[in-house]
Structures are given as structure tokens and as C-alpha cells.
Amino acid sequence: MKPFFALFAAGFCVVGMVARAQAPETVTSGEIYLRLNKLNVLGAVLYMAAHPDDENSRLIAYMAKDRLYRTAYLSMTRGDGGQNLIGDEQGVDLGLIRTQEMLAARRTDGAEQFFSRAFDFGFSKSTDEALATWGKEKVLSDAVWVIRKFQPDVVITRFPPDSRAGHGHHSASAVLAGEAFVAAADPNRFPEQFKYGVKPWQVKRVLWNSFNFGAGANTTSEDQMKIDVGGFNAILGKSYGELAAISRTNHKSQGAALTPARGQSMEYFTLVAGEPAHSDPMEGVETSWRRVEGGEKIEGMVKALIRDFSLGHPEKSVPGLAEVYNAISQLKDGYWKTQKLKEVRQLIADCSGLWMEAATRTAYAVQGDSLAVTVTINNRLNAPLSITDVTLSDAGGGFNVVLKQDLEGDKNYSFSRSIYVSPDKPVTQPYWLSQEMSPGSFNVSDQRLIGDPQGGPAYEVSFRLAAGGQEIVYRRPVQYKYTDPVKGELYQPLTVMPPVTARFDPALVLFTDGEEKGFRVDAVDRSRMGLPKFMLTPTPDVTVGPPSGGAWLARPAKEKSESVVANLLAERGGRSDTVLQLTTIAYDHIPRIDYFRPAREKFVLADVKTAGHRIGYIEGAGDRIPEALAEMGYEVVQLKERDCTAAFLKQFDAVIAGVRAYDVHGWLGARHEALMDYVKDGGNLIVQYNRDNLGRMSTAIGPYNFAVANIRVTDENARVNFLIPDHPVLNYPNKIGDKDFTGWIQERGIYFAGQVDSAYQEVLSMNDPGEKEQKGSLVIAHFGKGIFVYTGLVFFRELPAGVPGAYRLMANIIALNQKRGF
To answer: Is the torsion defined by CA of 131, 135, 137, 143 positive or negative?
Structure first.
């Protein structure tokens, strides 16, 4: 199964994306108290699984907030191949959303986040397929790198390495964990990593955190090692089940919110590799300062800080923290020295109520332009601190402001400086998208970035302070700060962008019968030089005329079914450059995400005939099918709840329910009778895949019983058999053949109809290799004078991808009630 990739052309310079914008962190005295206690805990736990939301949030919160271990989650993928409940983003765009949702979840449960370079190419039924598609050695090296860098004492997997995992990605993540346990300790495995400061690392044990998901998915037993993670944290005022629920609620694109759990909650563990444990996952691990040479002294100093800590005046702990910082600085260099110095630095800032920010009044820094940056620092609790200087370092120019003064209590120290944004300053880009993808994985040339959830900021300001004679440097990203009249003060990332960006409208042009079609280039000039001359890269199968009045006209030069792509070029000063398109993803629950790709127009040549004209569309969980229908020549009307009456619907040749429409619109069930009346009176109701009645026989969607089943065919090249060759859906107005199922992406279909009533016609069959034939991808029934269709075929992927056969088949489904005699 190969994925559909968004390809990012080489030839433009990029820097790692920062979508990390949020207000400078402030914490309560209770949280400071927890962090003080954590200073005396020197243990690390790494959780491993395959996707965003696979993690056991309750166990992670318990390890991070109760046991106070340095805790992290390594997700092999960013969740690019899943479905989206909040918008129409798919593929890498969805992966960008889920990356930020994961980071929000970790801010809640107190853990850190890592990713490998593996791409989520959709559901996989085989461990071998997942590992082969990802490139086993490549993603194994990523897991080894994270282990060597993070140095966990224990690795915990969510899944077993076999079919009980329920997904090839799941089981593959467990296989990788087991192999990484061995490889990370072997100096002969991936030795190229050692030049970046890591060394072989021996994890003490790997444990499988077995699960009980109900409905036959119980892998726990009472003879396993188990611990209770359901406790209540009085300092935080929440149980770990409640923290887990808050953490999971951040996975909004997946609809993964949980009901908060309170009370005892047992977690079960089975040894996978390493030393056995009988009562606790960290059994036998030294987690005090005794594991560091000379560390016993530090432990006593921290205990004194905890004993004397004042909830009302945390600033009184700053001199003692400076002494701890000095003492740790004198230890031999090593992992825990580095980590604990980082923790003490943050604690000094926390106890001081120290506010440090670097902000702009614009969201975008344009290459070749200037940028005003305002820096503010405030020692809000009057801790004994002084500041030496503030620096913004950049190859194109920055600033260094020397202050050399004590910081008075609760006083704003603020200044503004203007910097020059060099034309050579890299545009802001997710680092894993800066190179063209390999089949199944991202390519990252900088070893140091691998595993990082998002990369660094476009600009960063350093504050050099002193506390108790100890010099401490704090770094803060330059962010866009503004006040929304409804949402209040907000921080968003600062994006470096080129002077000119452009996008095509529409992004896909469909030619169905050799006709001439128009499209536009919507360009934005921030250079103050005026727009350059635009041209397209040659496309031998499509003839494109020169633009006129902002519009371009194109005509297919050949009669064949295929997709071709043209890049937009800008000509200025005798040189031609690829024009970049800015893509912005904006939701209230995550920072704004910007990234760039070459501006490209996709031309789809397909012999598509249509019957019927006016389509009513009930938007589902986010898809781009309405735009595709419009390209086919249909008039598309978006339907709301009030529109779904038999009298209103009768004007439409077909009514289509978007993907998971019944999941996201509770009112659809109440409109069932009206929808059936529309069908009975001669309408054509087409329902794409849903999960609302998963596994249950129901008439809540169609006129006759069927169950939405968790059946899918993941091989996008699986042979499709025509069970009723003379059925109109295969013949009118387009003759459907094997060729129409070539070039599909990611999968054939998901959530097929199962246990169907005999009134339904099962038109197609298909299956993954080695599995039985599945007949529920497209089921059709007469009801009264009209037609009802349920389909699990993934039109929501294939139409935006420009697959000609998917357009032809969709046209036939829409035409079912137009065929006389059917």
C-alpha cells in the first residue's frame, strides 16, 4: 500500500517550522513545588507506539506527575493518514495538525514528545508491510537515536508485536522497540550517530503495557505485574485519570476525548526484553542523586529547598536554587547534569515570576524587508536577579543590547529594535517537509533534528541574567503578539516568507470532453516592487494560453485519462524562479501553522460524462468533494439541517452525505424520515462512509438494515471484481472497467456495509492479499421511486488526488436515478 504524497520540490531554502507559539509560561506555586521535588528524581521512561492518540495518557501523566520521572512519548508517525473530524486537511496537512495536538497533550500530562520519520500511510494489516513501507532500518535508526539521546531507564510499548495489536503500524512499533533495545546498546549499530554527542545506551527493560479495550480486546491477566495509576494529586487538584482526559481532549481532529476517570485504575505489564521486574516498572533502577558521582550533596541541598519552600513567596528560593545550580555545574559532564541544570534554570525563572518575551506586530517577516521586535522583561516577584544583555543573533543581522543592571521588582524593562530580514533568510518550513519524501517516510538530512517534534523558531532572543553569581541564559522565540477583541491576548508563530507567493484557483482543473477551461493565479506581492511576470512549466498534454485579465485558459492537447502538473514560475531581472504557495492551517486549539510548497496546478484529463445537474451536499467531517463535483460541472448546494425536508430536497438530482456526516451531525438521525421520503419520491441519496452505527444493524442511515462494519481494503491496487456487470452504476453514463481502478491512492475503501439486507445490491467485490472477498464497498437499493447508495470507497481521497476513474464512477452513482428503466 503506497501513500499519496504531497511532494516538496528542492531548490528553495527552508528552516525548521515553529508552530510553538503560546504565551510565556507561568506556573503556580503548587507546580513549582512539584518541580522542586522532581529535582531529586533521576529516572526516565520512554513510551512507544505508532500514532497520535495511541499513547496511554493516564500512565504517562502518572509517570510524569506522580513519580516525577522524565517521561516522553515516541510516536512513530504524525498521524498523517487518518481521518479528520474538524476540517478537510489530509495527508501531511493532517500530520501538522496532529503534531500540534500532541504537543498540547504533552503540556497537559507533563511529558515530552518525539516522532520518527515514518509517514502514516493509512491502515495496514501487516507488520511486514508497515516496516517495508517505512524503511525498517531508517525508522529503527530513529528509535535508536531517540533512545540514545533521551536515555530512558525503561521503555514501555502500547502494543504487542503481533496481530493482537490490530494494525500493522501498531505491531511494527512494538517490533522496533524490541530491536532498538538491542541496537541502542550496540556500538556497531548506527555508529554515525556518535559524532552528534550520543553514545550507546542500555535500557534496563522493555515492557508491554497490555490493554483491556473491551469487546474481545483484553490482553491483561491477574498474574501480570500491575500498578495503580488512578491516584489523586492534591497539589494539582486532579486525578491522573482526569489529567489523561484533559490531555486526550487535545486530539480534536480525531474526536478522541475521554470521560475523566476517578478512582483506582490498574495498568498491566509484560516483560518484552531485559531484566525482569516483579512489582514496579522501574524496579532496580537507581533514581536518586546516587546515580551521579558526587550527587549526594545535591540531594541534600534540594531537600532543604523543599523544606523551606514558601507557597506565598517562591522568590525566596532563588538564592538556594542558584547554589544548587553552581553545585551541579561542578559535577562531571553527563546526561543528568545537563538535564538538571535545565530544570534549575527554569525553576529560577518560575520562582521569580520572570516574564520574558520578544514580540512583533506582524505575523510575517518578509525576505528583504525590516522587522520591528519589542523585548520585555519583568522580575515580577523581585527576586535577586540582574541582567547583562539581550541578544538576537542572525546571519542577516540582529542586535545586542547591553543593560548591566539589577532587575527591580515588578518593573517592565522594554525596548524595540528593527532588524533586517535578509533575502537569504530561509523561509519557515516544517523541517520534515523541506526535502522530497521517500515512499513511506520523510527525509531529514540533519541528524540532530530527527525525533524533534517541530524544530526551532525563525528568530530567537537570548536573555543573559545572573542569580547568586551564576550566569544563566534564557532563550525565547520571537512571536507575533496581538489582542483579539473576543479571545483576548494571543501569541502566534512568526513566519519568514518570500516577497511573492501565489496559489491557483481552482487547484485542480478537470477536463471531461476536451473543453477549454479557465483558472486564476491569486498572487500576493509584499516586495513593493510589483508582481513579476508569471509563466507555467511546459505541459505537453495541456495547452495553456497567456493570461488575460488575471485568467488563464487551458485546453487538453490529447484525449487520454491522466493527471499532469504544472509549476508556476516568476520571471524578473532575467531569471526564473519557482513561486511558492503559502498554506495556512488555523484552528483555535492549536497555534497557526504556515508552510510552503511550489505553487502547482493539477490538470486532470478524464472522459467523464454526467447525467443530472443539481446536487445537495451535507458536509461531513471535512472533505473536498464539493469542489470536485463543481469541477465535474454540477451545481452544488450545501445543505443545513433546516434544508433537509422532502419538499426542499426534491429539487436535487442527488443528495450526498459527506464522510462521517452521521458522526458529526446528531440531527441527521432525526431527519431520517425526510431523507427517506426524498428517496421514495424519486431522489438519489448517496451516503459516504460513516462510523455512527459501527457494528450495529440499523435503519438509521438507509431504508433497509445494514451494519457499518470495520471492514477495509487497504491495498489501493487490489483487484476489483464486477459482481453485476450490467448494473447501471457500471455502465451509465460511463462504461466502468478495470482501468478506472488504476492510480488510486492509499486504499480502496473503509467501513464497508456488512450484514446487508437482501434488498441491497452488492455491485463490487475486492480484498486484500490473503483475505476473503469483501462485497460491501458499494451497496445500492431501490426504495419507492428512488435510489439509496452507501459506499465505503474513499472518494474523499481519490477525487482531490485527481484519479480519473474515481470521477467516472462518482458520475455514474449520481446518475442512478436518471437511467430510465432502472
So the answer is: negative
User: Residue 651: how many CB atoms within 10 A of its CB?
Assistant: 10
Beta bridge partners of 229: none
Which three cell numbers, joined as nine digits, stand for 515? 473543453
For residue 379, what is its C-alpha cell?
Answer: 522580575
Q: Is the pTM of this model over 0.70?
A: yes
Residues 636-666 have pLDDT tens digits of: 999 999 999 999 999 999 999 999 998 888 8
Tell me the three state secondary structure of residue 643.
helix
What are the Cα distances from residue 7, in Å, to 39, 432, 433, 475, 600?
45, 12, 8, 34, 11
* Cα-Cα-Cα-Cα dihedral sign, residues 523, 519, 92, 448: negative
Q: Could you give the CA distance from residue 496 to residue 370 in angstroms, rounded to a whole number?
A: 11
DSSP 3-state of 307: helix
pLDDT, tens digit (0-9, with 9 covering 90-100), for 554-594? 999 877 778 899 999 999 888 889 999 999 999 999 999 99
Q: Which residues, in sequence order, are bridge partners of residue 499?
A: none
Do 493 and 457 touch, CB atoms closer than 8 A? Answer: yes
Handedness of CA 116, 119, 120, 126 (dihedral sign): negative
Question: Mind spelling out the 3-state secondary structure of 527-596?
Answer: CCCCCCEEEECCCCCEEECCCECCEEEEEECCCCCEEEEEEEEEEECCEEEECEEEEEECCCCCCCEEEE
Task: Specify the pairing of strand 575-578 against strand 542-544.
Answer: unpaired
Rounded distance between C-alpha atoms, residue 246 and residue 259, angstroms: 9
Q: What does each C-alpha distance from 68 to 55, 65, 135, 451 come to in angstroms?
A: 18, 5, 35, 22
CA distance 145 to 197: 11
